[in-house]
Amino acid sequence: MTINLVLGTQWGDEGKGKIxxxxxxxxxxxxxxxxxxxxxxxxxxxxxxxxxxITPSGVIQGRIGVIGNGCVIDPEVLIHELNDLTKRGIxxxxxxxxxxxxxxPYHKILDGAEEQFxxxxxxxxxxxxIGPCYSDKISRNGIRTIDLIDxxxxxxxxxxxxxxxxxxxxxxxxxxxxxxxxxxKAYTDFGKQLKSYITFTHIELNKAIQKGKNILFEGAxxxxxxxxxxxxxxxxxxxxxxxxxxxxxGIGPKHIDDIIGIVKAxxxxxxxxxxxxxxxxxxxKHLAEIGHEFGTxxxxxxxxxxxxxxxxxxxxxxxxxxxLAITKLDVLDGLKDVKICTSYMLNDKxxxxxxxxxxxxxxxxxxxxxxxxxxxxxxxxxxxxxLPKNAQKYLKFIEKKLKVPITIVSIGPGRNETINV
Length: 421
Known about the structure:
The protein is of the alpha/beta class. The protein folds into two domains: 3-90 and 201-420, Adenylosuccinate Synthetase, subunit A, domain 3 (Adenylosuccinate Synthetase, Chain A, domain 3, Alpha-Beta Complex), CATH 3.90.170; 101-196, Adenylosuccinate Synthetase, subunit A, domain 2 (Orthogonal Bundle), CATH 1.10.300.10. 34% of the residues lie in helices and 21% in strands. The protein has helices spanning 16-23, 75-87, 105-118, 130-138, 145-148, 151-171, 180-194, 201-210, 242-249, 282-290, 309-319, 358-363, 389-402, and strands at 3-8, 29-32, 41-45, 48-52, 64-67, 72-73, 93-97, 101-102, 198-199, 215-218, 258-264, 267-269, 303-305, 307-308, 323-327, 337-346, 349-351, 365-372, 406-410, 418-420. The strands form five sheets. It has a ten-stranded mixed beta sheet with strand order 9-7-5-2-10-1-11-15-19-20, with helices on both faces. Strands 14, 16, 17 and 18 form a four-stranded mixed beta sheet that branches. Helix 3 (105-118) crosses helix 4 (130-138) and helix 3 (105-118) packs parallel to helix 6 (151-171).
């Protein structure tokens, strides 16, 4: 039995989808434990490209996908994804937690309204209702999946919630009237379509553990978007770190064997907030163009910069990462020099940690270690020793600085473009 956890160590978009797909070949269950359809996992199988937003990546390999209680679900998006996969010849095996919260129409309206109200201080949300849904969950005003299959309970909850939300919309001067009958009809219909998938997934997973099944947990976004440990308030609304997996899936931490941190060979982020190693020159454009750095969910261009080990070091510490998977190494091909940030200068003082104060982060200047670049990586490379010597030096430096072994190196989007170290 193996129970592993895959996490992003940066601001998301590290290539978790491919790595989860790679590990899924040997597991029985693949579990999403946080986030919603603001995440996007891209998986390339031969000439086929799959872009998933809430469905666990492992369903592409025919594994049982689990959407845990820590997730928030837009049922319309989920149903669309399931139908699309079915049309493409994949019949998803899926279990949905009866405790997961549901994204409602007013969540999406409020998400956009709050961003507009914040103006220059906007967070850069995807405006898909994720934050407002999590807010309702914490304030105990949420609609859960179990409510979708009980029209009486759903109607009673809407009777309480909708007048409150309408007053908030009116306060924002949004001319949008919430129609209870329309919402009740639509979400009752969603419930009928999803009923066969909804169950007590935490019990299912714990029984699977007792039976010795192999389980893989996949995180959405990355550590620096964690609501506590990320660049707050420019974060997501859930816990993207290892501890979030236990809460968001209902399993004890003692069961997890390995925690695999996904590290893109450079750094990217989408949306607002500071990013110390961001590049605004030709190299930044090179990374964006060669790396196809556009959001899977939003299509927004990603900001690009050199690899920041201050960020990754914090991620390794907080989540107790035991293995590293380096992705998109091939994007650095052809650069004369490559750099890695090892620490920051803040007010003439060298620091090795990521400050909580956003104003301080904005003042941090990266201290770089510079390396000679390398020519094009042979995509038929199957061994670490076959990589260009300078690429090997680059990777060994990362491993040495983080004191965590690199076990996977991805040199392209395809399944076969993966080196098992």
